[in-house]
Design goal:
Rossmann fold; Serine Threonine Protein Phosphatase 5, Tetratricopeptide repeat; 22 helices; binds flavin-adenine dinucleotide; binds iron/sulfur cluster; PhrB-like; lyase activity; UV-DNA_repair_photolyase; Cryptochrome/photolyase family protein; lyase
Length: 511
């Protein structure tokens, strides 16, 4: 071979121009490495998912006629290759390959590793051809600004890609944003369709991880892995979502229930983050479904979905490249508390957290509002150190890759970015959780009480958070109402609430 092309575990896009024709001089390489399996403590299903998808992708490329060298964790460990560039270098020497090519990695860590290696040993980088924006589009759009408003970027993307626009270049229906319609509470009688799953025995990968002492978190009930790992399966999952769940995606986007982990969400983030599905085809499929049946799938459902992918997903990636590596160490609120140990076990009496965490440990999945308003909200108002919060989120979810994990966690959820992403902190008391979920019904704690043994810990922590950050947030017009409510409570009640919060913080492990 004269050319080695590296395929990273999250670059499984068979429609990339690399694969347009078969070239006998080119060999494609995929490596399962110790460094990738251990850069954080990953969920067992996350590593399993990546390895299975990489293996299936190698088989697919071979079927298409390409030459592929695949190295399992056994192979790379036996050869003593710790990192991806160790492995690339060794294979280049072994095969006598002169040219090395790779696609832009999405993680800062790997970007740096490959830049350094290429400076020393030569390397040509090309686009991953995955995103609808370029790495630096967000940085360019908001140059010199303290706040990066997602809505501004989203509208720009709608225009640029002509998605949900009318013939005059105006938003279809005349309205950009349907957020107001997308905060519905789930009616008890509404049925929730079961989503397609793609069961396979993951025993072989689990044994491999055990053989190499790879530390993991979470569980894989029955040893069965259920996420789609081939392109065919991902396309089936997309069809299932558009046919069965898009119909209520927007309306119940913020709802939470013990009845079902997924509700009307897509569960496509693993497929898109590994590049098995492109964001454009996912958006096009949803828009097509709406156009085919606008009576059933109303505009707010499809706009809500497009906003997540064309807006939030692309925007978060842009924020990542605008702000790394500083973003990874920001802690604007100077939070220092430890994240309670039960985040790793699910063993807490708080129903909402018990449910959201155990679901995450069992499925490596929680939907956005569970991540933001249950686990994220609690960590924020407790004052947990963003490093600890990041470590948990980067490990626990199957879709957790740093560019989209850290921006959501440290930025949107923990506000460690000082408000770059969000106009106000995503904090709430039990009131919001009780309104949007069925978690509070038979909880050990009382969502209405602020003080006393059975008072919901969210309540005192919420006011304590606002009180201790008063200087920072009091002037924020979106929070003025909350501070007025706090004032109205009077000194005695305030003192009792803050006393309860102090107790909660001190006994966080036992809640
Ligand atoms: P749906 O609700 O069905 O949304 C459809 C798609 O839109 C998703 O698949 C995803 O690609 C995209 N999307 C939606 N919201 C966001 C968002 N805020 N940022 C970027 N893309 C979005 N997403 C990840 O992919 N990886 C992560 O590691 C991750 N960590 C998060 C951590 C926290 C604290 C929070 C609050 C959110 C995080 N998100 C992350 C964003 C979001 O929660 C997930 O993308 C979503 O829950 C995935 O499930 P889904 O496919 O069912 O999403
Ligand atoms: Fe969560 Fe509090 Fe409701 Fe219990 S009462 S489920 S702890 S919000």
């Amino acid at each position: 071979y004269s050319r080695l092309r590296l395929i990273l575990g999250d670059q499984l896009n068979e429609n990339h121009s690399w694969f347009a024709k078969v070239d006998e001089e080119t060999v494609y390489c995929l490596f399962e490495t110790y460094s990738e399996a251990t850069y954080t403590r990953h969920h067992i299903q996350k590593i399993t998912g990546f390895f299975l998808a990489m293996r299936a992708f190698a088989a697919r490329l071979r079927d298409l006629g390409h030459d592929v060298l695949y190295f399992t964790l056994d192979d790379t460990r036996e050869a003593g290759w710790e990192t991806i560039t160790d492995a690339v270098d060794a294979v280049r020497q072994r095969e006598g390959v002169t040219t090395f090519e790779y696609q832009y990695p999405d993680e800062w860590r790997l970007d740096q590793e490959l830049i350094k290696y290429s400076e020393k040993a030569g390397g040509v980088v090309c686009d991953s051809e995955h995103f609808l924006s370029r790495r630096h589009d967000v940085a360019d759009l908001f140059k010199g600004k303290d706040r990066y408003l997602m809505e501004t970027f989203y509208r720009e993307m709608r225009r640029r890609h002509d998605i949900l626009m009318d013939a005059n270049g105006e938003p279809a229906t005349g309205q950009w944003n349907y957020d107001e319609d997308n905060r519905g509470r789930l009616p008890a009688e509404l049925s929730i369709p079961a989503a397609s799953t793609f069961e396979r025995d993951a025993g072989e990968v689990v044994e491999l991880l055990e053989r190499h002492d790879i530390p993991t978190m979470g569980r894989m009930p029955g040893g069965r892995f259920t996420y789609p790992v081939t392109r065919e399966e991902c396309l089936e999952a997309l069809k299932d979502f558009c046919g069965n769940r898009l119909v209520y995606f927007g309306t119940y986007q913020d709802a939470m229930t013990r009845r079902d982990p997924l509700l009307y969400h897509a569960n496509l983030s693993f497929a898109t983050n590994t590049k098995l599905l492109s964001p454009r085809e996912v958006i096009d499929a949803a828009v097509r479904s709406w156009k085919q049946d606008p009576e059933r799938i109303t505009f707010n459902q499809v706009e809500g979905f497009v906003r997540q992918i064309l807006g939030w997903r692309e925007y978060m990636r842009g924020v990542y490249w605008a702000k790394m590596p500083e973003f990874a160490t920001t802690n604007a609120l100077e939070h220092r508390a430890a994240l309670p140990g039960w985040y790793w076990t699910g063993d807490t009496k708080m129903n909402c957290l018990n449910h959201a965490i155990n679901q995450s440990l069992d499925r490596a999945y929680a939907h956005h509002i569970q991540r933001l308003m249950i686990t994220g909200n609690f960590a924020l108002i407790l004052g947990a150190h963003p490093d600890e919060v990041d470590a948990w989120y980067l490990g626990v979810y199957i879709d957790a890759i740093e560019w989209v994990e850290i921006t959501n966690t440290r930025g949107m959820s923990q506000r460690a970015d000082g408000g770059l992403i969000a106009t106000k902190p995503y904090c709430s008391s039990a009131n919001y959780i009780n309104k949007m979920s069925d978690y509070c019904k038979d909880c050990h704690y009382n969502p209405k009480k602020h003080t006393g043994e059975k008072a919901c810990p969210f309540n005192s922590l919420y006011w304590d958070f606002l009180d201790r950050h008063r200087e920072r947030f009091e002037g924020n017009y979106r929070m003025a109402f909350m501070y007025k409510t706090w004032e109205r409570k009077g000194a005695a009640q305030q003192a009792a609430i803050l006393e309860r919060a102090a107790w909660v913080k001190e006994h966080a492990e036992e809640l």
